[in-house]
């Protein structure tokens, strides 16, 4: 159940930054000839051309959707370039995407506390940076405001299509603005600066939402994509939330949202406003009741956790249809691959970040061939984690067998067939830093007496002495929050197995279902509170003018980048393609605006448990506890506004020419 957390301050400046069509951008950076071309990344399983996991904006313009397979995408967009996700150990290898995400995080973390929320999403707490900026240079004295800031979408602001940037400039520099709006304006300036920095250093574009809390920032980041930012003023919150379907709100995509619909007739967030806090508490308990009352009003006290590293690591694979695993030997074979990969990643985390994981969890999706109607889920099983691929495998096999016994019940033999496994994943969680003062990693492990630092099978002296550490004493829960999980995803079908997905890729099944169905659903309208006079056409046009123009400028002027990768020099053909891109992208904005909102509203349902399959999410939420809040990171003070606005504000166009 959601937990209501009090707002620490109503003047926080929180940004949610979301990379645009992330895997596609990573592939386009690797193969610059793909820039400007309709491109999609397909999963490893090549059945019917492979399931699409990321779709570039040019392809979206032609009607390509993430729910399609490659063959279908080719039908609607014959020119589409399909790039297969890298493969290792017979499954998707997401290392390049994960590393690309880390590059971005390291840039975004420069201005404030930074929480890596998924492979391509970050929350930033920019309160200190915004306060500092405001103290040093009053906004009304601001003269040179970067284009990227002026292109911001300010919710609630009446815009006249002819002088949008002027109106935004006026809003940013209003003398009579209240303190909260002034901080938001500073936040917008900082975020635009960071986004341009990301573009310069990584060649990736991203979109952002800037608001007073995480929930609103997340809602806003997807409203104007790609390469744009949206500001949620306090005055716009009501208009933003009221029409939103209740199920689209974070943590309301499941049973709680359904209960609100069926028991209280609440279909939109606005419908929730009629219930008093006491009434909601009576029905859903005091904490959830307060949480519901708060979110209906845009109040959310969730803190940005200072975390640049993932909370857990996972490795998984799906086995759809005839590929289902039907024997213990087959399961063990795949568990070996998954455990070796997990062990390697744990080892890297240990060596690089001096962190150790404490819990191993096995998830599976299964069916009984004799009992096709059964809705019984394969129970997730956990045990303390022992380092070393051999030990992880041994424990995973035991966890699997324990889960299978429970799944089948006493009347079926685990070895006797009659069952199939359509998905398997192993996750290492409860990752903590080795206490400072521990003189060496080896010493730490000796102290723990149950870890083994080698990726080889562990020595017996590290085996658990305590029965509590044995997987036979398994816990039927999982422990993954932000899981860095390698695997492949299967497009939505009823037997979709989703938890072997990676970080963000690990979109929950409810979200995916929404993504699938939303193509047929009317698009939720996201109003500006004062936009009554503005026609939809005008808004579309306005969006066209924003968006990617600066990205194009960037690529056009940097057709041969200085990056070390030799692939970074754009060929003439690629440059021509970029010329085309201008037209394609701006036109695509019309559709993109529609689609991006729909996509991202669905993603509101991502929460700390988003990487897990829906069937596990309920289970997990029941035992999730509030996270320990991280100390705010120190934001560099003493910098002036001039520091935020580089004297050469167009420097991005001159970068990396060497
Ligand atoms: N991903 C995946 N499977 C999913 C969803 C996403 O493998 N079901 C991967 C591919 C995406 C990346 O995760 O590139 C980030 O997912 P997003 O939902 O943020 O989508 P994109 O970044 O691709 O597009 P957008 O610009 O709409 O955010």
Automatic annotation (TrEMBL):
PROSITE patterns: UMUC. One of its GO terms (molecular function) is damaged DNA binding. It is an enzyme of class 2 (transferase). Keywords: DNA damage, DNA repair, DNA-directed DNA polymerase, Magnesium, Metal-binding, Nucleotidyltransferase, Nucleus, Transferase. It is found in: Nucleus. Gene3D superfamilies: 3.30.70.270, 3.40.1170.60, 5' to 3' exonuclease, C-terminal subdomain (1.10.150.20), DNA polymerase, Y-family, little finger domain (3.30.1490.100). GO terms for cellular component: nucleus; replication fork; site of double-strand break. GO terms for biological process: DNA repair; error-prone translesion synthesis; response to radiation; response to UV. Residues 449-494, 513-548, 627-658 are annotated as: Disordered. Residues 449-492, 531-547, 649-658 have a biased composition (Basic and acidic residues). Residues 14-253 form the UmuC domain. Its EC number is 2.7.7.7. Its cofactor is Mg(2+); Mn(2+). InterPro entries: DNA/RNA_pol_sf, DNA_pol_Y-fam_lit_finger_sf, DNA_pol_Y-fam_little_finger, DNA_polymerase_eta, Rev_trsase/Diguanyl_cyclase, UmuC. It catalyses: DNA(n) + a 2'-deoxyribonucleoside 5'-triphosphate = DNA(n+1) + diphosphate. Belongs to the DNA polymerase type-Y family. This is DNA polymerase eta. It comes from Helianthus annuus (Common sunflower). The lineage of its organism: Eukaryota, Viridiplantae, Streptophyta, Embryophyta, Tracheophyta. The gene is POLH.
């Amino acid at each position: 159940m959601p937990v209501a957390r009090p707002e620490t301050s109503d003047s926080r400046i929180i940004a949610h930054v979301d990379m645009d069509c992330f895997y596609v951008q990573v592939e386009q950076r690797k193969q610059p000839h793909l820039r400007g071309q309709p491109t999609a990344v397909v999963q490893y399983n090549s059945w019917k051309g492979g399931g699409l996991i990321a779709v570039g904006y040019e392809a979206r313009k032609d009607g390509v959707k993430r729910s399609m397979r490659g063959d279908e995408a080719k039908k609607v967009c014959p020119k589409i370039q399909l790039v297969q996700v890298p493969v290792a150990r017979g499954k998707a290898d997401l290392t390049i995407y994960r590393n690309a995400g880390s590059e971005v995080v390291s840039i975004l973390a420069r201005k404030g506390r930074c929480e890596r929320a998924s492979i391509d999403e970050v929350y930033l707490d920019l309160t200190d940076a915004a306060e500092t900026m405001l103290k040093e240079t009053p906004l009304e004295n601001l003269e040179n405001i970067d284009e990227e800031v002026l292109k911001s979408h300010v919710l609630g602001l009446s815009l006249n299509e002819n002088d949008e940037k002027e109106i935004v400039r006026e809003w940013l520099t209003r003398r009579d603005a209240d303190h909260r709006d002034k901080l938001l304006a500073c936040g917008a300036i900082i975020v635009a600066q960071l986004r341009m920095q990301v573009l310069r250093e990584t060649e990736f574009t991203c979109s952002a939402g800037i608001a007073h809390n995480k929930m609103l920032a997340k809602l806003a980041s997807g409203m104007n994509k790609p390469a744009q930012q949206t500001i949620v003023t306090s005055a716009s919150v009501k208009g933003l939330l009221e029409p939103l379907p209740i199920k689209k709100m974070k943590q309301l995509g499941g049973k709680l949202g359904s209960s609100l619909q069926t028991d209280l007739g609440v279909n939109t967030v606005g419908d929730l406003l009629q219930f008093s806090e006491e009434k909601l508490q009576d029905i859903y308990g005091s904490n959830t009741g307060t949480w519901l009352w708060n979110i209906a009003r845009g109040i959310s006290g969730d803190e940005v956790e200072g975390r640049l590293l993932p909370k857990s690591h996972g490795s998984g694979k799906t086995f759809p249809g005839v590929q289902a695993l039907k024997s213990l030997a087959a399961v063990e074979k795949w568990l070996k691959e998954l455990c070796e990969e997990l062990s390697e990643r744990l080892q890297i985390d240990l060596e690089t970040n001096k962190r150790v994981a404490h819990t191993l969890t096995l998830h599976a999706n299964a069916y009984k061939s004799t009992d096709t109607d059964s809705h019984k889920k394969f129970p997730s099983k956990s045990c303390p984690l022992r380092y070393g691929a051999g030990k992880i495998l041994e424990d995973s096999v035991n966890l699997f067998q324990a889960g299978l016994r429970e799944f089948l019940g006493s009347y079926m033999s685990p070895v006797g067939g009659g069952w199939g496994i359509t998905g398997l994943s192993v996750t290492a969680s409860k990752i903590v830093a080795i206490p400072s003062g521990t003189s060496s990693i080896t010493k730490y492990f000796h102290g723990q007496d149950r870890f083994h630092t080698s990726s080889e099978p562990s020595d017996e002296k590290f085996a658990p002495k305590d029965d509590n550490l044995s997987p036979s004493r398994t816990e039927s829960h999982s422990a993954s929050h932000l899981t860095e999980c390698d695997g492949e995803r299967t497009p939505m079908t009823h037997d979709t197995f989703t938890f072997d997905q990676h970080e963000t890729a690990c979109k929950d099944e409810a979200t995916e279902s929404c993504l699938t169905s939303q193509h047929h659903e009317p698009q939720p309208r996201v109003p500006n509170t004062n936009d009554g006079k503005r026609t939809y056409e005008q808004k579309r046009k306005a969006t066209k003018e924003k968006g990617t123009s600066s990205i194009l400028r960037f690529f056009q002027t940097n057709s041969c980048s200085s990056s070390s990768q030799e692939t970074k020099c754009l060929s003439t053909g690629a440059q021509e393609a970029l010329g085309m891109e201008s037209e394609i992208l701006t036109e695509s904005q019309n559709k993109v605006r529609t689609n991006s909102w729909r996509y991202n509203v669905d993603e509101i349902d991502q929460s700390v448990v988003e990487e897990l399959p829906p069937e596990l999410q309920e289970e997990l939420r029941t035992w999730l506890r509030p996270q320990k809040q991280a100390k705010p990171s120190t934001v560099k003070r003493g910098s002036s506004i001039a520091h935020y606005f580089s004297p050469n504000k167009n420097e991005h166009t001159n970068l990396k020419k060497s």
